[in-house]
Design brief:
Elements: H1 6-25, E1 27-33, H2 37-48, E2 53-56, E3 75-78, H3 83-89, E4 94-95, E5 101-104, H4 105-119, E6 122-124, E7 127-134, E8 139-146, E9 162-171, H5 178-184, E10 197-199, H6 201-210, E11 213-216, E12 219-221, H7 224-230, E13 233-234, H8 240-258
Parallel strand pairs: 1-2, 1-9, 2-6, 9-12, 10-13
Antiparallel strand pairs: 3-5, 4-5, 7-8, 8-9, 11-12
Helix pairs in contact: 2-4, 2-8, 6-8
The protein binds ligand 48F.
Residues 33-39, 56-59, 64-65, 128-129, 172-174, 176, 178, 223-225, 235, 238-239, 242 line the site of ligand 48F.
């Protein structure tokens, strides 16, 4: 058995993290904030397009709302054609008589994350996106802080965050629409997020995809964050719209970066 020195374990972790951070994270093509179904799908497809992609999650674990199923019953549902995204990731699906697809939430989270990792996505966990880098006419990246630092006693609040530059930022922060909310404080015409409306599954699934768009140069709002920004209906424990919204966000990011239209996910509907 090899002799393992304690300080070599530490050195390996520190070296690897710093190396990865400087090479693959500091100056990226696409930063996805949030690792729920929308964020993971967005990150996976952005990386598959060949973009240097970072997904940032404030929790220790990735997966957002995917873990819970509905009412803490760990089964997730999707409609068509979102089932294709899960099939591509190797998730085991069962088709119901009503034409819905159902899977184990653990299978969905683990296979989607594996698929994103295989595509080259870098994940920063326990990391809160505190703010945007906001230039005169575009978003230029995000400002991050260790999540535990947010919960330090008041006398430590002067600990400054650090910056990551990115060509495109995707707000996939779910119900809180964190980055849109922050932008709405500083730019006219950016709506203050309303929170989502009451349950209407069909319409919510459709609108989640349609409302996913570039809300400001360099910032794409996607998934539940888009639904919540415009007060569109909630959808409950069905995830198809989130997956398709994530894929659409990646297509929009690809188009923004390369000028090549990749989108197959249809029209954009943004309320006046
Ligand atoms: O909430 P979440 O799963 O958003 P989503 O991907 O999907 C919504 C569904 O899960 C569900 C639903 C219908 O299908 O009803 O709500 O749009 O994932 C959002 C993730 O963003 C993280 C948060 O911890 C969660 O994992 N997050 C939120 N704010 C920040 C953040 C932040 N400031 N920095 C980093 N991560």
């Amino acid at each position: 058995m090899t002799n393992i020195s304690e300080i070599h374990v530490t050195k390996t972790i520190v070296n690897e993290f710093l190396d990865d951070f400087i090479q693959n994270i500091l100056d990226s093509d696409v930063v996805v904030v949030g690792s729920g179904p929308c964020g993971v799908a967005a990150a996976k497809y952005a990386a598959e397009f060949g973009h240097k992609t970072v997904m940032i999650e404030r929790n220790l674990y990735a997966g957002g709302g995917m873990w819970q199923g509905g009412y803490l019953m760990p089964k997730n549902t999707v409609g068509s054609p979102a089932n294709k995204i899960l099939e591509e990731c190797g998730v085991k699906l069962k088709e119901t008589e009503e034409g819905l697809y159902v899977c184990d939430s653990f299978d969905m989270v683990s296979k989607m994350l594996a698929s994103a990792c295989d595509a080259g996505v870098k994940l920063l966990n326990s990391t809160n996106v505190d703010d945007l880098i906001l230039k005169e006419d575009h978003v230029d990246g995000v400002v991050i802080q260790w999540f535990p630092a947010k919960h330090m006693p008041p006398f430590m609040t002067c600990m400054d965050p650090i910056a990551i530059r990115s060509k495109v930022v995707i707000d996939a922060t779910g119900h809180d629409s964190v980055l849109v909310r922050r932008l709405s404080e500083q730019r006219q015409g950016i709506p203050v997020p309303k929170g989502c409306g009451s349950l209407w599954v069909d319409e919510a699934e459709k609108q989640t995809v349609e409302l996913t768009h570039e809300i400001y140069p360099g910032l794409i709002v996607a998934g539940m964050s888009a639904t919540s920004t415009y007060g569109a209906p909630r959808m409950g424990p069905i995830f198809g719209g989130m997956l398709l919204a994530g894929k659409k966000a990646a297509e929009l990011a690809h188009e923004k970066i390369t000028g090549i239209k990749a989108g197959a996910l249809g029209k954009i509907r943004v309320p006046a």
